[in-house]
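Mods, move this if it's the wrong board.
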Amino acid sequence: MVQMKFAYRRPDWRNYQCRLQKRRMRKQTVRRTFRYSVFLTFLTFLGVGAYGISGKVADSPVLDFLSAVLPSAHTAEVQEFSAAAFPGNADGGSAYDHIFSKNEIRSLLSSAAFLNIREKSFHLQTQGHSFQVETTIDIPLQNFVLENMDRGNSRYIGIVAMDPRTGRILAMAGHDSANPHKNPCTDALFPAASVFKIVIAAAAVEECGFSPDSTISFRGAKHTLYKSQLPLQSAGNLISLRDSFAQSVNPVFGKLGVHFLGKTAIESYANAFGFNRPISFEIPVEISTVSLAEDDPYQWAEIASGFNRSTAISPLHGAMMVSGIVSNADRLVEPTIVEQISNATGRVLYRGRPKNFNRFISPAASDTVKKMMEETIRTGTCRKTFRGYDRDPILSRLNIGGKTGTINSRNHPGRRYDWFVGFAEEKEGQEQIVLSAVVTHEKLVSIKAKEYARMAMAEYFRNYYSKQEAPLQKADAGTLKPGKSI
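Not the wrong board. Structure tokens:
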């Protein structure tokens, strides 16, 4: 019998350590996989938001929960796992930026929380959590508007100022005499009246090839709308589209609605301007509505001219409409009132950023409507209110445009809705602001919407120029020789 001998060779120290290391790594992988599976299952039922495709963490309690469940030694694992599961933004943002989406912000914040605020930031306690909210509000402008509001003689006041390039809300001031906690700036309870002529003017320019000099005849008074005023070939006064817009001539816009646009085009352009669709904003906003009958041309004429009470709009939406025209872009920009929101530990949960809303009119059409809005200030329904603006030390440095709208309430005798939406921009510079104001007068006519707009425009640019010129004045003062005085 042959005996076979096996030589026993003791492993060297390096191989022994490698095997131990591999064994430890396998055990750690199994443990981590089990823990992460448990955590993800828990988040699914927690309801605070595992986001799947959206790639965003729902709330700081998610990370807080992970940190609490894992031993303190594994805090780095929590952050490593979160960064892998919820990567940062493509623009280089942190993995913890934008933990909230706008939709979730709306569930946390109410419109009332942003009504008439006087500080740039504020503390918010909601749903058992503590947040610090940084707003986009221009506090000097906001306080100026609040201090000049005539609350004693108005049923409603809603004033919104907006940066048309970014959608940042610079002022949001409101008054509801029956409900002080309600925010009229986000309520679509106001008849749009002739503000809707902006939509029809844009449609006539882009869809039908009208220019500001195109003429249309009309008969009867400018501010009535009878069926006898609507025949296309009726004899009467010839007036340009520019002057019809500036003077808010109802029969002309009624004809545009019936004979040139029709139901489908009106609906299409109303949609482009944001009607009948939700507005993405950090606080709830009521949907602005317009509804056209299937086969009622006279009703189309009423809608097109603003001579109706069913088309409703919020002051915030009014600012959005004008921002699209002033920014001269082919898309509306979403409004934003929040710079950022952070939790009690200072972690940023949300940052507001410019974002497009929907397809808008062409830049060429925007430019044409913008010129007609400027004519409204010079010779139209705003002429008296803005009289002398070309000699004003502040307003003379600006291009100003607007559109007014007024209509009486059918259900409340003596109540009158009064609108202004418009803009002001530097003639020699880039600064712009959009103003949207609505006032509901009752027994006495208080400060009108266009008067609020003029005051706010002047105040905003007064502050702006003061900031711009202060460094120059300081530099000039520094060049004075000893013994000289200013």
